[in-house]
Amino acid sequence: MQFQERTQKYEYKLNDTDDQIIEYIINHKQEITNISIQTLASRLYTVPNTIVRLSKISKLS
After folding, report:
1. How many other CB atoms sit within 10 Å of the CB of residue 45?
2. Whose CB among 14, 29, 51, 57 lies 3.0–4.6 Å from 18's, allowing a Cys bridge?
3. Residue 41 near residue 48, CB atoms below 8 Å
4. How many other CB atoms are there within 10 angstroms of residue 55's CB atom?
């Protein structure tokens, strides 16, 4: 299952911050492969824990 499919599947579990993170990831696919979670969180004005939590939600099946 692709990233966008997973985010649509679990949309009911996502909040506005999650939506912003997902949008950033989709729009910056190449860039995010080379940055840390801390850098990504800083760019999105959030904390790394938020990104980790989002990744756990999208891994559910």
Report:
1. 8
2. 14
3. yes
4. 11
